[in-house]
Target: 6-phosphofructokinase
Amino acid sequence: MRIGVLTGGGDAPGLNIAVYSFIKLAERNHEVYVIYHGWRGLLEREVRRITSLDLVDFAFSGGTYIKTSRTNPFKDEERARLLERNVKELGLDVVVAIGGDDTLGAAGEAQRRGILNAVGIPKTIDNDVFGTDFTIGFDSAVNAAVNVTESFKTTLISHERIGVVEVMGREAGWVALHTGLATMADATLIPEKQVSWDSVVRRVKEAYEKKHWALVVVSEGIKEYEGPRDEFGHARLGGVGNELADYIEKATGIETRAVIPGHIIRGVSPSAFDRTLAIRYATAAYEAIENDRFGIMVAYSNGELTHVPIVEVVGKNKLVSGYWLRLYETYWGDLN
Model:
């Protein structure tokens, strides 16, 4: 078969390993092509045959060697027709789409329309893809966020300040929750749980009176800003950390600083967990293709690899809930 591989949406640690591992397996029996710049690459025919040797030097670095974009191939019917024509002329039998909800949604739509056979691999530092416990990149991003927070904490202790760390995650609070737990933050704010900023002030003031410093972790998604949106309708987020720090300082009279690591936590080298997860996902995707299982996303559930129909995944965000929300409430349930 002729198999194409693409990475779409935001970059994440572990993408290069997933691509490398899949090609290393598939090149034994098939022609493998990389599609540069995600779905845009199929619209603009940025497709090249490649071997695993071309990727080995980059396999363990962050980012994505084959580039990415937030292009929606089904933004209009003209694009959809162009996609179908290019897939047919390129002779691609299968496309392995590595991405989050938007990238996988496009793969599912392409499968539904009969344009191509698709297999999805879930990737995003936000960990919000429905149907899987973990996505490629999440563990690495949390580790990076924890490292930043612990470094920041030493300054807070030294100068007896209050600090706010804002982390990425969009509408899901997974990164903030895990960062807050791992650093035992005095307050953690996630989009899934409405909180009062005055309650946050009360909590950090109490913590400050006891130890002469305090730490708050906040998810970027607790507040959405108006502005330009991407082709999938997402607004740009970020900046709430500075607002919260200003609010706390004015309310308490205590010097409060904010740190926003932003994309830094996305660009780190993948953790051991993400490296292994990427390899397992790539292997499962290859095995699915060998068994003619298409229109599915490989997933991680309770320690095991499984398959989920892409149609059951798209349009659903996996938000903090159940056990994890109860754990959140155990430590910060009085912030509303």
